[in-house]
């Protein structure tokens, strides 16, 4: 899109990096993965094809896709020691704490044999992370509810396999609902990458020192956990449950506008989008499809969310501040309908964003001009001289 706009020097001086992976136009509400509009990818592609696109820069043909999917499937299991590592956590640990620990622990398993200057090793690290994240997220859930781990079922596609690991048990046959599996696949596509957001910048900065890529992704997971970032979907659902009824919406809109109140409307506003987040519209459609498939079209939370969105979009404060729903506004409702526990919403976000993180890491580490990141500061402290000991002052 460089032909469509001219870089202003000021922009380049503040730009964190150059990248050809994802493009966002915050004013127009546009999002492109490798030049393809998110609206087209969400309709015509599945998550494995989008993973291939983000990693390799092109959509795969049938042969490339089959090889890619097979490669991912050959890495879906985790080392049994990782399974034992999970046992060290309290059962009521927040899943994001478990994910940070588990993915960080993968760096202990893939380090000595990993040469990040070797493109093949970098590709294998990427495939391992894409493949193992669903297994680890589902393990964290099963561990928290005291059920046995469900091992990956490689005859299923990515999202269906995740649902089986989440909701299947050793004693019952479980067939994922294909409509719901497709909806989950679309949720993963919508969260796959988003330019230089906080967690991606964390991964790039950590990776710029040459650190182990598994440890860098663990750093990205830690950053995503925050309620101002990936934790907003969990916070948004809790907010909707707290509001409870449409009659209380004005009270919360008022609080969101009150500078003396730290309350922010979760799922609204964005560092870059000053227009509708294109993902929010697609997430609303996906939410509608899932609720209809489950016969929950009268879901009170969905109705409350749509009314809250309508009122906020008509409010002069939100209009003036250019605050629109973001990707997190509907994702909590649809994930709750899919049976995903609230605390795991950000874990799903991390599972989806792993491909974005690793593609951005790969782009950075493969750049011969790449140097270690070293943000500067504006020093606001004093300059002083040491005076002799107190008794001489
Ligand atoms: C994600 O960066 C990414 O790409 C992130 C992400 C990704 O895919 O990686 O898109 C995922 O993190 C989406 C954002 C999820 N977070 C939330 O929904 C939490 C609620 N949103 C806010 O915390 C907030 O909107 C931020 C943190 C997202 C952005 O905050 P900014 O940078 O302050 O937004 P802004 O500059 O546009 O704010 C303008 C004004 C400010 O007030 P003033 O200083 O002008 O008086 O609007 C206010 C803000 O305080 N404001 C809000 C608000 N968001 C901004 N007021 C009430 N409710 C809100 N949600």
Automatic annotation (TrEMBL):
Q: Identify the domain of life.
A: Bacteria
Q: Which Pfam families match?
A: Citrate_synt
* Transferase as UniProt keyword: yes
Reaction catalysed by this enzyme: oxaloacetate + acetyl-CoA + H2O = citrate + CoA + H(+)
Which GO BP terms apply? tricarboxylic acid cycle
A GO cellular component annotation here is:
cytoplasm
Q: Which PROSITE patterns match?
A: CITRATE_SYNTHASE
Give the record's keywords alphabetically: Transferase, Tricarboxylic acid cycle
Q: In which pathway does it act?
A: Carbohydrate metabolism; tricarboxylic acid cycle; isocitrate from oxaloacetate: step 1/2
InterPro entries reported in the protein's UniProt record: Citrate_synth-like_lrg_a-sub (IPR016142), Citrate_synth-like_sm_a-sub (IPR016143), Citrate_synthase (IPR002020), Citrate_synthase_AS (IPR019810), Citrate_synthase_bac-typ (IPR024176), Citrate_synthase_sf (IPR036969), Citrate_synthase_typ-I (IPR010953)
Which residues carry out catalysis?
270, 328
Molecular function terms from GO: citrate synthase activity
Q: Which PANTHER family is this protein grouped with?
A: CITRATE SYNTHASE
Q: What family name appears in the similarity comment?
A: Belongs to the citrate synthase family.
Task: Quote the protein name from its UniProt record.
Answer: Citrate synthase
Q: Which organism is it from?
A: Sulfurisoma sediminicola
């Amino acid at each position: 899109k460089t032909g469509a706009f001219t870089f202003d020097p000021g922009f380049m001086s503040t730009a964190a990096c150059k990248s050809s992976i994802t493009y966002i136009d915050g004013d127009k509400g546009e999002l492109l993965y490798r030049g393809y509009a998110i609206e087209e990818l969400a309709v015509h592609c599945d998550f494995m094809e989008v993973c291939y696109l983000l990693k390799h820069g092109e959509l795969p043909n049938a042969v490339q896709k089959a090889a890619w999917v097979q490669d991912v499937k050959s890495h879906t299991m985790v080392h049994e020691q990782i399974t034992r590592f999970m046992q060290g956590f309290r059962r009521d640990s927040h899943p994001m704490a478990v994910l940070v620990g588990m993915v960080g622990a993968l760096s202990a398993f893939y380090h000595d044999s990993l040469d990040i200057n070797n493109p093949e090793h970098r590709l294998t690290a990427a495939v391992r992370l894409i493949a193992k994240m669903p297994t680890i997220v589902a393990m964290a859930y099963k561990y928290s509810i005291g059920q046995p781990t469900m091992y990956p079922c490689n005859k299923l596609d990515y999202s269906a396999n995740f649902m089986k690991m989440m909701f299947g048990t050793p004693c019952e046959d479980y067939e994922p609902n294909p409509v719901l599996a497709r909806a989950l696949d679309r949720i993963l596509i919508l969260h796959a990458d988003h330019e230089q957001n906080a967690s991606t910048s964390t991964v790039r900065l950590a990776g710029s020192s040459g650190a182990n890529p598994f440890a860098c992704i663990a750093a990205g997971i830690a950053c995503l956990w925050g309620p101002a970032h990936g934790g907003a979907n969990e916070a948004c659902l809790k907010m909707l449950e707290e509001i409870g009824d449409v009659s209380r919406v004005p009270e919360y809109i008022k609080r969101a506008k009150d500078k003396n109140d730290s309350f922010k409307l979760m799922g609204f506003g964005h560092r870059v989008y000053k227009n509708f987040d294109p993902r929010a519209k697609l997430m609303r459609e996906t939410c509608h499809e899932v609720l209809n498939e489950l016969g929950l079209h009268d879901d009170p939370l969905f109705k409350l969310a749509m009314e809250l969105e309508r009122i906020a979009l008509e409010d002069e404060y939100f209009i003036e501040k250019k605050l629109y729903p973001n990707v997190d506004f509907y994702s909590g409702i649809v994930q709750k309908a899919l049976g995903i526990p609230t605390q795991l919403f950000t874990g799903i976000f991390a599972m989806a964003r792993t491909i974005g993180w690793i593609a951005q890491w790969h782009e950075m580490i493969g750049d011969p001009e790449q140097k270690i990141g070293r943000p500067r500061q504006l020093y606001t402290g004093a300059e002083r001289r040491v005076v002799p000991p107190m008794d001489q002052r």
